[in-house]
Design a protein that fits this description.
Blueprint lengths: L1 H14 L1 H4 L30 H37 L1 H16 L2 H12 L3 H11 L2 H14 L3 H8 L4 H9 L4 H24 L10 H8 L8 H28 L7
Amino acid sequence: MLGGSIVALLALAALCAPLLTPYDPLRRGGLALLAPRAGHWFGTDDLGRDTFTQVLYGMRVSLMIGVTSAATAVVIGVLVGACAGYFGGAADDVLMRLTELFQVIPRIFLLILMVALLGQRLVVITTAIGVLSWPGTARLVRAEFLSRREAEYVMAARAIGAGAARIIFRQILPNSLAPVVVNGSLLVGGAILLEAGLAFFGLGDQNTISLGQMIYAAFPLMRDAWWASLFPGLFLSLIVVAFNLVGDGLNEMFNPRALPR
């Protein structure tokens, strides 16, 4: 509940950013490098832009990247894991070797390579993070399907002539969604951190403002304007911790054995 409340509050603040601040995140709102004060609660950066305004709009981008990338990873992971676990045999071997290939390659380096080749656009970054984050979900779904593909309700579905697609998506998958939902909530925080790391290397989308992009721009100013990097860093950490709390809570809710006795 705490994690969900924090996520909801931050998402609401990001969506209502035009109502919470009169400034434009990309335009000068005051003198450069003003310390936090009334009218500029988080101070201003080296270009005179209001840091509080940038944090609000930056949360929009970071949350969008996290949720979209996690959804992409979940969809790919579910499809790969379901096919591998249900069909087994050669399909399982090929798909699992592909999964292991993606797992052994450091994601951040492959992500840097993809963004450098395809461009530093927000859609490229989001898609690349999602494409590189699915192996864990695939292995999780595969394990669920291996344990359920010979269950009585699956055998009954086969007996009445149900096809493979119907059994996968109508019978087994709905009973395997609990760990997928938990894993998906954890993927959101990981995707936000990946985008922040990418932005810190100077490979973020320069036409948008994200929390990672703010930290990258404020890094040279840490001695003279500590607030320019402190506040986006705090909110970035808060978002990731909140999604991890949501994941832990969902795990306890879906897995009664995990509850303390």
